[in-house]
Amino acid sequence: MHQLKLLTMKKILLFSFALSIALSSCSVLNDVAGSEIAGLISDNLTEQVTSHFENLDPNAVAAASNAFASALTISDAEIKALCSEYMVSMDTTNIVLPADDPYTIRLNRVMKRFRNLGNLKLNYAVYDDANTVNAFASGDGSVRVYSGLMDIMTDDELFAVIGHELGHLINKDVRDAYRTSYLVVAARYGISSFSEKAGAISMGFWGDLGDELANNAYSRHQETKADEKAFQFCLDNNVDPYAMYHALNVLMEIGVDNDEHTVLSNMFSSHPDTVKRAKHIKEMAEKAGYTLED
Question: Which stretch, 68-72, 128-132, 176-180, 217-221, has highest mean pLDDT?
Fold first, then answer.
């Protein structure tokens, strides 16, 4: 009887998960093909979530179900607070270069045009990691760039890449990625409401949240829209309109022969997709009247 009840709770939990993923993603999926929506609640994802709860007792499963409902109603302000707390963890576990370091000075010089994004105040920092080629923006306005990315990008390419990440912020991709990832991790930890989160925080929680964020890659549609934002940022700020095109080509080059870099940017999801994205940006620049110089 105990096993039967647990199985029933799992079925309810998985149904809640599928429903919550669909609802929390509506704001970014309203113009995405139905096949991509279906992919969010695929059998593979369901199996992945099921594995998280194999060893939980019925009370924990019930708490996990409550967490799904909580994640559906988590506000933008709460997500911003979640992002802020996550960034404290990230800045603690990575080596943040000081303000007088050449990498930090360069980043602040390149991004001096962007200190605010609407009402969101931006803050920039460099992680000292030559083997990681990546950058990301968090929902609290934190923008982090790995030194490995700065080593292979020109100033214009760096500006475009960060513009791409800010594009994800503007398009609400970051918000929805955090909401979806929090939904999974909160359920795993049995957190039934956002207000209870502070009492259940551990390094394991933040590590799991980071893993979920890394696993929940942006869709091709989201990446393309962020590329377009980066292109517009370049035009608006007198930066090479082909900067994003060049940056994507740099990522493709190191992606083919990736012996030195252990972590490659999430923007490089697959070679064929990146080729199409670079071609799209090149076509946008040509349509705007620009010519690619050799």
Answer: 128-132
**Within its chain, how far is the Cα of 145 from the centroid?**
13
Q: Distance (Å, rounded) from C-alpha 263 to C-alpha 138?
A: 19
Bridge partners (DSSP) listed for residue 125 = 144
Domain ranges of the chain: 81-172+220-287
Which are the contacts of 291, defined by CB distance < 8 A and separation ≥ 6? none
SS3 249: helix
The upper half-sphere exposure of residue 25, i.e. CA atoms within 13 Å in the direction of its Cβ, equals 24
| Confidence at residue 68, expressed as pLDDT on a 0 to 100 scale | 52
Distances (CA, A) of 185 to 43, 63, 139: 19, 12, 18
Run of H or E including 84: helix 76-93
pTM of the model: 0.73
Strand ranges in the chain using DSSP code E only, listed in sequence order: 116-117, 120-121, 123-127, 132-133, 135-137, 142-146, 263-264
User: What is the 8-class DSSP label of residue 216?
Assistant: S
| Strand pairing report for 142-146 and 135-137 | antiparallel
Name the residue among 126, 154, 125, 136 with its Cα closest to residue 244.
154
User: Which candidate, 276, 83, 272, 273, places its Cα nearest to that of 169?
Assistant: 83
Taking the CB of residue 234, how many other CB atoms lie within 10 A of it? 23
For residues 224 and 277, is the Cβ–Cβ distance under 8 A? yes
pLDDT (tens digit, 9 = 90+) per residue, 160-207? 999 999 999 999 999 998 888 888 887 777 765 555 454 445 567 777
